[in-house]
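Lecture notes, unit on protein representations.

Consider one protein chain, 597 amino acids long.
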Amino acid sequence: MKKFFFMALFFMLFAACSNTNNGNAVKILPDDDPSGNDADYDTEQTDDTDGDTVSDEDNGDTAGDDDTDQADSGDSSDTAPDTDKGDTDEKLEYESGFIALEGVDYTLNYRSYQTGKAMMWYNFQPADENPKEKPLFVLYNGGPGSSSALLFLYNTAKKTGDQLFSGEGPADNETSWTQFGNLLYVDARQTGFSYGIIDDPENAGSRDEYFTDMNFNIFADAGDFIRVILRFMEKHPSLKANPVVLAGESYGGTRSTTILNVLLNVADYAQEERIFYDETLFDEIAAHFQKIDPSVKGMPSKEVVAKQFGRQILIQPLIAGQEQFNAEGELLEQSDSPLYIIGEETGRTFKPCGKSCDRHTNALIYVQRAGRDYYAYRKPSNWLFDYTDVGTAKMLQMPMFEEFILNDPTKIAELHPENRIGAFRGNDSNSFLRNSTADHDFEGLPEIDKIILRSRIAHRNAKPLSSGNLDTFFGELPDYDDYFVDLNQTINITFSKATVSHYDTINGEMFLENIRTVKTFITQAEEDIIIYSKGIPASLKSFSEVSSVDTEENSFTVNFSDGQSVLVTFPFYPESSHSVSVNQPEKLFNDVKNWMN
């Protein structure tokens, strides 16, 4: 198996507010069509009444914060009436598989694109009790180009791979989020277990053509995830009207922002009043809301969407593009910066650069040269990835893979080589790793990407990720394919060069627009330098629609120029790195649980 590396900017969550009954969220919209129907793209595996995994029909498979947070925002999602839940006889079981994405035409910034085909991997874990009554949490990491493995393996799912708790194999997770919700983990296109499909995967030129911004920009990425979420719910009618909470880490914050902005403002997007236009996506969104609420005609309003997609959880997120990194750089040069603590402990003096250079990049270079991990500054270089590689290596071993996903992977047709027609994972990744120091590999990239990619590639070359033994059970794959990719570095490069990237000002503008409607939870990790948490509220002050930002110990309030004020939950994690679920899983579990109530 090719040796890909786990990289760095991961990102996370959003979703729906709801009434509660003894702490259990109830559905907020009527479900008039409990049968499911025409989402024939889905090829996930479902369970029969005997618990045996079978394929879907006709697909050929062989198988703390209270509800006053948004008091001034006009958010009606917490006060939505309790309506018919639309319960069915569906039995919700642990489930894994793939959802097919067809190629679609769209425009972005008045340029025409067409996405390529993809098979999107997901793992579903039902809530421990009354799953039909609980919200659906959609979890993903960031990168961009990272799989969802870190959140999946480290203390949010039913089983944990954290070596602190699990020893040699998986263990029951005492902080599993299944205690308060249903969990849906999704790997982004070409990451984790997800893979692309082209006519001639043996052709290196065809593979290279796939890795352009037609497939890898913030809006195409959001479209992928919206389709996966809606198609998963279409196949599970007992969940179709449930609240949805997006939970994204690192770049996952940008992903959540874009997903929410498209959903909430789909009526505007459909009228070509925004920079992105995807008619088939907008029609699919409209069809979803029309099925669960017959009163909806045409495109759903922001208020209708917010009843289902009304909350987001963001773990150490990038939400404001370059403005966020600029704010972080300024704060990292102040006298209370952790960089001076590193200097005292290592004897290597930090030298601020003021306005003579990119302050955030200067800080990262310093941390790296001081021998510390910029995801966890109290730890040595590469500590976070050395630690989490252990869990990933476990997942790539049968039968531990089956123990983690809690269903039989051998019955998932698309994991078998004979069913992966046209499948490929990357271009010549091994060559890229060997030649990673060449300047042309990074030409045109922002400095922060150059630093992170060089570091991750060097680390992966020195400490290759275990290839596991999945090929022993499923069969050997061609060199251009692979069962699992922890980080696809080509995706990260492509995103950074895209027409609309995660560094652009539009990201902060969309985030600010979203929080007027969506209740928001953002982690504040002490040890993270990549996403220096203090820079998140500080960066929002740079946007013209914001008059001021008031920061408290565990929250901040954004005061808009038009008089609206929005409270954002911002709990502090004094012992956490970039990955809060790794360091303080119990506190994160309790904070999210209390916030949902």
